[in-house]
Write a structure and sequence with these properties.
- With 124 residues, this protein is α/β, with parallel strands linked by helices.
- The protein has a six-stranded mixed sheet with strand order 2-3-1-4-5-6, sandwiched between helices.
- The protein is globular.
- The chain starts with a strand and ends with a strand.
Length: 124
């Protein structure tokens, strides 16, 4: 099974996705440090929000097979730069999270922004 790393802003749904992928009980908790759960690496949102910490994602991705950029469709903020996926030595896909809380236009916009960041494919 492939090892994936989840990257995205604080409260975008990385930990929930990690719990779902690993068949865990769904409960909110703030991720404070890198957490490896089976083949999933959950990361703190600050690694994306604070550019001085972004290098930690790139270094950690060397241990992964795939990076997932996670974008909350219900939020206006977007933390990934255009072409940012090219910073990683492994493929980067996108995940539009919280689609149940967003309008179709917000979902479309989140997917488009993930593609602009270099994520492909993008899943909702």
């Amino acid at each position: 099974m492939k090892k994936i790393i989840l990257a995205g802003h604080v409260a975008c749904g990385k930990t929930t996705l990690c719990q779902c992928l690993n068949g865990m009980e769904m409960k909110y908790k703030k991720t404070q440090a890198l957490e490896v759960i089976n083949t999933t690496i959950d990361t703190p949102g600050e690694y994306v929000e604070r550019r001085s910490l972004f290098h930690a994602l790139v270094v950690t991705s060397v241990e992964a097979d795939q990076v997932l950029f996670v974008q909350d469709a219900s939020q206006e903020r977007f933390m990934f730069a255009p072409g940012q996926a090219s910073a990683f030595p492994v493929p980067v896909a996108g995940v539009v999270s919280k689609a149940d809380l967003a309008t179709p236009e917000q979902i479309r916009q989140a997917a488009e922004l993930l593609e602009l960041a270099g994520a492909s494919p993008v899943f909702v």
